[in-house]
Backbone:
């Protein structure tokens, strides 16, 4: 969504945008990986008022979504 907003607001600075998605609910999209679902199921335990905890969650999010 942020990329789309950026492209609309600054179209002169954006050459292309590639959108992709997964879904556990739409049969036409590939399902989300189990490791991603497991990671986000613990998001409720994150103390969102603690900067270090938010940074840890964000880094973990990047790691769980990265391609090995």
Residues:
């Amino acid at each position: 969504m942020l990329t789309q907003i950026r492209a609309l607001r600054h179209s002169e600075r954006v050459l292309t945008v590639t959108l992709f998605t997964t879904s556990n609910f739409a049969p036409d999209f590939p399902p989300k990986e189990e490791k991603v679902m497991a990671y986000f199921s613990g998001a409720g335990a994150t103390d969102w008022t603690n900067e270090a905890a938010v940074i840890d969650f964000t880094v973990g999010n990047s790691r769980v979504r990265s391609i090995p």
Remarks:
- The two ends are 25 Å apart (CA to CA).
- Residues 51-65 form the longest helix (15 residues).
- The mean pLDDT is 85.
- The helical segments are 2-9, 34-41, 51-65.
